[in-house]
Structures
1.
Amino acid sequence: MFNSLIAASRLFLRSKVAVSIRGENYNIIYRFYRKMNRAVVRCVPSESKLTISFALDGSNKQMLRDQTEELGKALARIANSLIKGQGKAKKSKKNKGSPTEAPDPAVSVRLYYNGDVVPEDAINSEAWQDGAVLHVGNREYTVERNPPTFTTTELPASLLAGFPVCPRLEVEFGDLKDCRFKWFKERAPVAGDERGRGEEGWVEVGNERVFIPSNMDIGCKLKLTCTPGDGKRCGVEEELVTVATVEAGPGTCTFDNRHMYTNKVTDDFTVRVVSYNILADVYAQTELSKTVLYPYCAPYALELDYRQSLIKKELSGYNADVICLQEVDKSVFSDSLSPALDAFGFDGVFRIKERQHEGLATYYRRSKLKLLSQHDIMLSEALTSDRLHEELLDRVNSNPTLKDKVVQRSTTLQVSVLQFQNEPSKKICVANTHLYWHPKGGNVRLVQISVALKHLQHVITQSHPDASLLFSGDFNSTPSSGVFQLMCQGALPQSHPDWSSNGPDELCPMDASNPFRLSSACGEPAYTNYVGGFHGCLDYIFMEPRVFQVDQVIPLPNHQEVTTCQALPSVSHPSDHIALVCDLRWKLSPAMSSALP
């Protein structure tokens, strides 16, 4: 018996799989022995089949059976599988010249629950209960139905000292807050020590979901062991080892000094808002970007994994309540940002641009806010199909050239209505957008912002009249633009030069109005976008000043920090834009503000 357990433990070391139960420490042999004597059943009511998994004769058996099938058929399938396995083994021995043996009698396979045999005419979905015992010959397996299980486990490729390492984890039948984590780093091998960097060559360095390596970890790989849980029980421990080693970070980043102003989470009366165009990877990796737009940026600093390491540290250090991001790659949202920000307490929603690979993301601190509803639109589609914009569409139709340009754009408006957890009467309508980029596209942007404002007015008046508006994004508009004037002054005359920004062929003069009274919470910075051929203020966080007062605007990086490597992005800044960050304090209740004239 002891020898078989030793053999099992050696197999465990090769498989790198273990079970750890509610903080108790079990030795390797017992953990593996327990794993070998468990039958995991995955049975989801919405699915037609269930899965039965267990280890038998050193191999993993997994069967997919109909939930409505009788138990007897499933048990017979297990018995037949064992007989076939024995037949293959005997045939292999015969081919090798070993003497043949008489066939083993049929193996008895039974399922017990509370000591009683489960009838073979019971259907699978009811027969395989948690705590049942499967008997296969003289072997016994404890049935675990729908135990917590990781369905995705992945570590990032880029590891930088001083920057958070956030694993991508997805768990079924459990919750990440109930999972257990242990981080290890490689122990440098001692001269003459034949063990090298094996199981005993790791040093435990952390037990949180996110790990921040230090300079002492440079040159070392990291290992994470994580055990899924649901608050009552734990599943099978998973082990992940990084492919790369920890590398030195870039030193001081442009956002490090900014974090000194945001080292604490805000109180219940304040909302910290971030708006940030993070530069989509789909644009950063083009030849145009590398050779024309950002030739001053080191190629490795344009790589997605490297920039994501910086972005995660930057965003987590702001301790924000609401984060509005633009140019978010679809895969970045699901595979990188959301797993990381989830670990820091954020939930998020994503809206991709039609016919594109990037879009908008809005994150909110789940302990403070909850999502009530979403009202996203594609601006061109809303203009042409929603009767709300009939008057504007009539004017745009008068200039086919302008209309074609507007309709071709996939510009999107993301609208999320959030409610405060501690005071349900407080709601904010968070709008997030990224308007048309072309320098001569001021007329297109004016049409886009007119559609956006009309839509927001409809959402608030019809669905959430007690919500206050926060409108963030990359508006691709300087403070002298028609868009900025319309947002902050409430009206724009038809004489504004932006109506003819691309020449007389696209002239479509009209008076425009803004139903909201808004102001720029962060004022008019000298620039929020700084590249080799351009710098200017393009990003804003617009708020209702009758509802909010600005508590603080987090200072932008100074000019020397921005231009250390000539322009942005750089090894110390992950985007060509700079994040806007501000704290907004409630002046009065939303109900009182809505009653004002």
2.
Amino acid sequence: MKVQAEFGVWDYVVVILVLLTSSSIGLYYRFTGGRQKTVEEYLHADKNMSIYTVAISLMASFMSAITILGVSSENYSFGFQFILIYLGHLIFTPIAAYLYLPIFFKLQTTSAYEYLEMRFGKTARLATSLSYTLQMILYTGVVIYAPALALEAVTGISRLTAVLSIGLVCMFYSTIGGMKAVILTDVLQSLLMFLGVFSIIISALVAHGGFANIWKIAELGNRTDIFNFNPDPTIRHSWFSLVIGGGVLYLSLYGVNQTQIQRYLTVKDLKRAQKALWLNWPIFCLLGIATSFSGLAIYSRYKDCDPVKAGYISSMDQLMPYYVVDTMGHIPGLAGLFVAGIFSASLSTISASLNSVAAVTMEDYYKPISKYLNKPELSPKKAATLTKCMAMGFGILCLGVSFLVQHLGALLKAALTIFGAVGGPILGLFSLGMFTLTANESGSLTGLVAGMAVSMWLAFAPKPPPNPLPTSIDGCNDNNLLNNIITIQVNESDYSWLYRVSYLYNGVIGLVITFSIGYLTSIIVRQFNGIKVEDENYNPNLFIPSLSQKLILKKHDNKVFKLVNRSNSCEDFKKNDISEL
């Protein structure tokens, strides 16, 4: 039977307490310590954050409500194989920690995209930071709206109330409290995410008598197979697409994304940042696997009466809140705890986005324009105030985008697709700069445009809808249920092979095209202009550690050669200023 939404007084109390607590953390950091009077404190938390809080914040930054709702419905519909994506995260963590992260720590730039100006030029920096800004505004608007849409359908919380509650509270504490408030609230919100997901698992374990019974039900529904090693790229989920495609997406987020780089720089040194990144993986993995298993737990209840097929809810993303109201709605405050967890997942992502986009706007747009117009440099206090206003402005803009989503239904899918498709080419651009000496600005920009065009084309190309595993409505016992459900059969052969490639490969394709075309174009440009790599004067800090060391040794050898050449004897050489070396 269809569940009637009931959200009691205690449920509202729990949600309101969570929102008030998040706001109070912002107020606390506004009136303590340095009171967010400098950009350094506001954006980098004075570099004195604990590695444990930063590790949790790294996880919370991209574990949004869309992820919580989406991963559970993914496992409900397609099975448990999705957990292999966390293996990809593990494999790519050392690459992010020991190749990309040291470069950002050497430079200590507020904007990650400042690196691209140092390596290639202003155009590369501006193009990439604009891509990031547009990506985050669209994504953040969706993060605000999507859970509001799902929760409205099953809890009775109006869409307007949910959107304004999430948006305004987050704007308040992230604007006045800065990065310290963002990271600390991430810790609180992560705890609530865990509580919300585990409340579902525990209720299912109690109802079915243990883990083994839930697993057996899922096994009978063909939802436990994780051994699909088929290398065919058109298969939606396999070991290869999840590990490689998921790993590249992870690397684009944790290796070169401004949101995460800014968090790394809130600790004192590189080793602490690397530890925080390593600690992030088991935390992220634990929540991810728990959310995945919650999908199987939900399936154990609805295996004979699928709520979507029965018409009780309109979207698979509403499964988790529907289950909570259905099974725990009678317990005062428990549904509220779950909703608080969903709100928290959105809050953590939104606050991360606002703070990071404000940093990019200050460093990549405002400062270069001010310098070009010969405006005097702002005092630390005025710069911090302006950055806060930027964060507030972007918050209002994202709220506006969230209201537009309901009128542009395709935007929900489009924004999420952009989030993955843009990451691969940007990762390819950074990799060109960090891993090669040959790459130049002309080549890198050509590669970026080509990679972005192809990955976006593939992302938005008409694709056959995925075929979920079968579900039933035989056990619904609903006299009003319409049994004349029409199933539309889709013939995949009607679609081009390219259009059937798994969505997880979008980032991989963007990375490969950006890197390869960028590298080849750079060689052609160098040949045409007669510019040799050996004649370039590179900054060793702009390259991965192994390449950086070679450049340092080369400079060392050149200086020794020059000193020996201008010395008439060994005695003269000894008298030279050896400190040059």
3.
Amino acid sequence: MSSSANEARKGAIRDNVLRLSREVPYPRKDGKPIYTSEFYGENVFGLAQIAKALPKPAYAQFLQQMRGGQSLDKGTADAIAHAVRIWAMDKGATHFTHWFQPQTGTTAEKHDAFLTLKSTHGVTGIEVSAIDAFSGSQLLQAEPDASSFPSGGMRTTFEARGYTVWDTTSPMFVQHGPHKTCVLYIPSIFISYNGDALDEKTVLLRSTEQVAKAALKVLALLEPVPQGARPITSYVYTTLGIEQEYFLVDRSLYVLRPDLKITGRTLVGALPAKHQQMEDHYFGHIPSRVLATMSEAELELYKLGVPIKTRHNEVAPQQFELAPIFEETSLAVDHNLLTMDVLSKVAHRNNLKVLFHEKPFKGVNGSGKHCNWSVSTGQGENLLDPTIKPETNYRFLVFLLATLDAVQRHGSLLRASIASASNEHRLGAQEAPPVILSCFLGEHLTEVLNAIEENRPLKNFSNAEIHTIKLGGTALDVKVASLPDIARDLTDRNRTSPFAFTGNKFEFRAVGSKQSPSFPMTVLNAAVASSLLDIAEALQRAAGDKPYPSDADKLKVIRQYIVSTKNIRFEGDGYSDEWRLEAARRGLPNIDNCPDAFDELLSPKNEAMLCKLGVFTESELLSRHLILMERYSKDLLLEANTLRTLLAQQVLPAAYEYRSVLATSAAQIKSLGMITCPELKTLQTTTPLVESLQDWIDKLDEAINNVHLHNQDPSKEARASVKYLLPAMNGAREVADELETIIADKYFPLPKMSELLWF
């Protein structure tokens, strides 16, 4: 058995070496390449197409509906449905689907054909003819089975009805499938029969509305306009840029790893001699097969209107990253999920497999999904832009401090939003942000806040004179005569910070690469909205009887929040033991396991904030807590059972076979009267490990049984998973990995990390 499995492994390695890159030509016209901008978004039915389909008054009403100003009437919906059907069918579409985001961490879709039958009364009786049709009511909503998705008890098996509803803020698009056909995708929310949110998008849209309302309230106080004049802006939205990290491995090797196929990570596997210690992979030359995959994926994504901007090698071998241009948050989330889907499909065509798991390989860097978040006006002004004089830019200071206040007051909630069985392997692993939430601002912006608090001039960092700091940057002399001076940002980066200010935005680095960004962004939006509302109240109190606060009133409130947010600001090494002690002294939560993190959803402070804003109802929050607990236990039980099977059916049989060969060889050598026997020494080393691994399999069985004892209570089951499964899996892996380094390669059936990590 072991030898045949090893042959399959060797064959996969050979195929990997011999496999050529797939070539997909970029669009051309008259033999010349077409610029990306010319075909960008060609598979998207956006506002430009809707404007062509509607009369101007109807289109203006549709824009009002998008902003929540009014409901979408049937005539407008029918007109859009007719136009999008013609557009999609001209591209080869045969079906449409409401594309939504259930609480599974991925997307879901059910395809319905445009084809329908029409009955008419003819001379010979009823005549049936086939037609293509798509109505406004079909566009607006559909009905998937709500009982088959995670609901946290809000839906039972016999309560099956649920609705998907078109999200007009996210454009429809087509994706090509087999036989040169395609499907029309309608981005949607997913709610129960009673209107409860069963998905990730509904609560995200609610949270963005709350940020907009709170921000407009603050701006009206900070920048009042004369009576009768139009406000500076009537619309505020959050923006998001998502850096997506991922691994690529050869599919022939991937299919021989049951742990990768089932759980997304290697449950056994010794670290190879060379991994990332040479620091030569980051920003290195992109392998040809990988570049071919990236280019093909980008081609599809550009046509889908996803603005991919950068691509590069990441730190670990076979780890890569892509990042888009910033977009409105909900659309950015849609595009990120679409990006993950397209990457997976394109990698498959290139005989590769994408691994989005946060830690697919023990001992090398894991993957994150860095979420770069900011707030903008309808005119495109970034409210987190410090400008040249941040010390007098009250708008910037208020929105900066509101974000710091949100993280300080609801850091435990943000911690819950990024907690998962997979992300726990990455967080705090000396490669990723720690689980203690803190904010990095950089020394210059910190000086701005300190100077305002202490009511003194700003320091000049270059010569210690007192003057105004210009955050636009300083010149940096590279001391090479042929090169020009370059601009240096006055704020450095801190990769150990889970929530860092990076020039004109905050980077939430702790989000996991596999998870949807919806929930973390929902929580962040809600927390910031709550803080903005509190600041608005503080400004009104400071103004007293005056209609609007004066500059002195604004500074008073700003100083108050500078002082109150000191504990969350940290400029040092987030990996250090000293920071853990300092964080404890400051009272910052250090939540080191998922069940405790999930419980923070229901803490009085966090629950009150989320429900008061209307982002969640109490029942929705309870259901999400239950879903997260259940998902965590299921993930760990899946890993434990997979590991148990892997050890019993592959690793141990390989060890048995190798021991048998060693024992036979040692006996033959001993019969010849030789004094020394290296085979016997190896056998004596291997045997205790085999016995230990057998013991660990028994411990795994016991741990699994202990968890099942609590399967009627998701919270207890999740805690039992932490208590029993994690130690058993870690102990079994340690022995298995040591055995892997001893068993002769020809007997080992599983592709090793040295083969998975290097093409």
4.
Amino acid sequence: MAVTLTLTSSFIAVLSPTAAEADNPIIQTIHTADPAPLVHDGRVYLYTGHDEDGSTWFDMREWRVWSSDDMVNWTDHGSPLSIDTFSWARQDAWAGQAVERGGKFYWYVPVVNDATGRMAIGVAVADSPTGPFRDAIGHPLVENGEIDPTVFIDTDGQAYLYWGNPNLWYVKLNADMTSYSGSPTQIPLTTAGFGSRSGNAERPTLYEEGPWVYKRNSLYYMVFAAECCSEHIAYSTAPGPTGPWTYRGTIMPTQGSSFTNHAGIIDYKGGSYFFYHNGALPGGGGFTRSVAVEKFTYNADGTFPTINMTDAGPPQVDLLDPYARQEAETMAWGNGVETEPSGAGGMNVGWIDNGDWIKVEGADFGSGATTFNASVASAGAGGTVELRLGGPTGTQVGTCGVPVTGGWQTWTTISCPVSGAAGTKDLYLRFTGGSGSLFNVDWWRFDRSGSGGDLGELRAVEAGRCLDVPNQSTTDGTQVQIYDCWGGANQQWTHTAAGELSVYSGGSRKCLDAQGSGTANGTKAVIWSCNGGANQRWNVNANGTITNAQSGLCLDVAEYATANGGLVHLWTCHGGTNQQWDLA
């Protein structure tokens, strides 16, 4: 976080500080601080604080979550945790960290205890890395007036919670992750363990705050903010999780316009990444910070190299698929736009003015796109989405008009032809129109030559209800059903050129699948991770039936069910109304 210090929640339209190609800081729609990355299920989840605009102190009221699978395009998941989550808390949503254990996600954060007026450590829990999070115990986990919790689970299963400013403490967490054994133990801050600070008899060592503890090979690392103010990032190592610690030196020297810094380190897809914050965005500084990240390589002996702040950020580790539905709030850079909770679920991009744009890095168009689709809403005058490559004024490959829909959360899908979008390109969605806010964007997707495109809702003729993924499940093997048509993402089906029927359920792309590659009557129709198998290829026929390419069986509503929750399976084609599907 930042020296023991407190901020409001208005969003700002942040502009690129340098060239459009600069992708640090990685979040531009709001000011963020105190990054805590977590790798889970092949994706990086980034937990941050939120500095309120125009603050002159650490005015922070909520925490935010972002995620990426390529280290350059980041998806905004909003705020699943705030001061209000803790009934006993008063203020100061400062630096915390989340960790996964046993399928649950535990987020440890410092807040002011309203009853005592002191900083305390709370713990929130969720079933998903993006929340929503709830207070796990209804009271502080530990309280001694100090801040900046970090949590580490050792290879033997023992979990540790560390925190502190001006001191450094730890406790051994119990297996439930919401209680601990024994009493808080203070780690001695010796100059041998944490470096020497000159000219300060009260604080002779470099340690200031913001610990980050992890294990690499057989060595334990304690990375921390050093010697306020301005801070740099330093580190110590130890043979065990509680020491003894040996000071190793500086990682990131004092740089940038923020007088604090806070580090988080992960390994992901074969690379090592160092997260930090600075004040690089317009209006930025010590109380309006922004999270950035650098890729680095450890020295052969396990020590850190010197890492400097850059505006370029790390290279992209995977290309983005523009033919899969992409959330509009997934971006490498946002110019002038903001985000907000969407009435359709998740977040959407809003407060779009004339000339604003979004950059999506490294979109793999392959042999070429033919159509662009997007979900939009407008209570204003509408406008235009210009599709450009290479820059906000780069080659224009398509133009989509956005109509007035009658409300900022009244969504409709627009489509327009595309020409010249091929190969791997940086995509820019440039927004144009009149004055004031023009429209909102929820998601977008391209179609390629020969693809079936966006089918939308598929309504069972017999029941008059839509093909639906129950509860927006993302679990492989979930059997699909029929349910009242409501326009949710879990009812929006896409038929690809390869024959896949895919859907975005809970924000993840899943394919319609004949369970177990079954070819017998009654084989369940389920969602499954897309794998290109014949049991995931479907023919959408002119007579309204949908047949599985492997078995030739039809998609069938079991027992001619017409009520919500009627299950869908595969059956010998007979052309009955329970095997006929219309576009809703």
